[in-house]
Amino acid sequence: MSTAMTVKKQEDKLARVERARDRRTYTPNVDIIETNDEFLVLADMPGVAPDAIDIQYEQGVLTMHGKVEPRQDEEKTNWLLREYGVGDFYRSFQLGEGIDCDKIEARLKDGVMELHLPKSEANKPRKIAVKAS
Amino acid sequence: MSIIPWRNKRENRNGATAEEHPLARLRDEMDHLFERFWRDPWGSSFADLLPSGVGVGLRLNLAESENEVTVTAELPGVDPKDVEISVTDNLLTIRGEKKQEKEEKKRNYHYVERSFGSFHRSIPLPSSVDSNKVDAHYKNGVLTVTLQKRPEAKPKRIAVKTG
User: Fold this and answer.
1) Does a structural domain hold residue A95?
2) Looking at beta carbons, which residues of chain B come within 8 Å of A117?
3) Strand B91-98 to A25-26 pairing
4) What pLDDT shows up at residue B139?
5) In terms of CB atoms within 10 Å, which of A36, A40, A79, B144 comes out highest?
6) What would the pLDDT profile of A34-86 be if each residue is shown by its tens digit?
7) pLDDT of the residue at B105
């Protein structure tokens, strides 16, 4: 399958700005899957409520930011075991051109964000029939 | 479907993640160990005594308050029906499976970072916990198990009388 668009990680300055908050920011694990019609982004963001996620697509750059509310008062809690940290999720990708911005759809279920980025018509692969003469 | 240890990004001091290289993670783990030692050299927090390697691939946070012990685990995309929680002789066991979303052929993967498969973990609980009063809750991909303490284990406030 030809990849009309390149998906590459972007060195994001914004993430550093976010880290200036007093809480930690984590990079969510993602799967990015390309089909003929769309790009599908799946991101693990446990603890993010559906209304606490911010997704932006601007000039070929996709940015996702999920806010996580602290589950305990971090300072006052008596931790018996602490194997993972809790904080916001932030990540951004360069997706290039060719996304139909109006048709982007996002869903968040059980801490997994599902983002559909349909390709614009011009970017979909076409089958060219070979005529037998 | 292969069994892949649950990967959850571990923070380092910069707030970034140190998962890129196994050695970086080992170093992190060692740092963590030393930090814990210096904070509490004689291990009065029982966490140091826990065999934290029991089970595969599920990271837990355990918090204690006056009345209860709360265990939380990040399980994004796991159907609560596929999670099994049991308490036997003060040993809490969480097991389950994270199933992959329906997979289609003719797909082109650009990034594959999320992992799927079975997980299970057993941890000893403080003796103060009443194993009959356990409550589990799953919301936004986070599993919270709340264990009530026995009445006799709860701290008692003693009023100081004057006069």
Assistant:
1) yes
2) none
3) unpaired
4) 93
5) A40
6) 888 888 999 999 999 999 999 988 888 889 999 998 887 777 788 888 888 89
7) 61
The answer to whether residue A12 sits within a structural domain is no
Mean pLDDT of A120-126: 77
Strand, helix or coil for residue A42: strand
Domain count across chain A: 1
Distances (CA, A) of A99 to A6, A62, A123, B97, B107: 12, 11, 8, 34, 18
- Domain for residue A113, yes or no? yes
Reply yes or no on whether the pLDDT at A21 is more than 60: no
Say which residues have a Cβ less than 8 Å from residue A16's Cβ, sequence separation at least 6. Answer: none
A98 inside domain: yes
Cβ contacts of B52 on chain A, cutoff 8 Å: 81, 83
Mutate which of A12, A44, A117 to disrupt the B interface (most B C-beta within 10 Å)? A44
Higher pLDDT residue, B145 or A12?
Answer: B145
Q: Which CA distances in Å does A108 have to A123, B71, B98?
A: 27, 24, 17
CB-CB: which of A36, A42, A79 is closest to B114?
A42
Residue A109 sits in which domain range?
24-72+84-123
